[in-house]
Amino acid sequence: MTESDFETVQIEAAVFRRLLQHLLHERADVQNIDLMIHAGFCRNCLSDWYREAAEQRGITMTKDEAREMVYGMPFAQWKAQHQKDATPEQLAAFEAAQKQHGG
């Protein structure tokens, strides 16, 4: 790995940490369903990607461990503190988004 490659990895890691900080502390009010509707991914997707990347590097990680890395706390705790039931409008928008994007 060149020094430039190392710097790129460091920058990417910092950006990822900033995204998590933003989702955890600045926009915990944004529901996962809204992220899915508008961006096509949510916090759970990030935790799945995190676990997959770890496993590609030979690091075994459970779904719960990966979610705790992304949520900053056990998922059940985050869910109890921040997650609201999806509204009928959100569910309809999610279904429409899934159909539009082949999900």
UniProtKB/TrEMBL annotation:
Tell me which positions the record assigns to the signal sequence. Answer: none
Q: Name one Pfam family in it.
A: DUF1244
Q: Output the superkingdom of the source species.
A: Bacteria
* The protein's name in its UniProt record: SMc04008-like domain-containing protein
Q: Which SUPFAM superfamilies match?
A: SMc04008-like
Domain (SMc04008-like): give its ranges.
30-95
Database matches in Gene3D superfamilies:
SMc04008-like (1.10.3340.10)
For this protein, the record's InterPro entries field holds: SMc04008-like_domain, SMc04008-like_sf
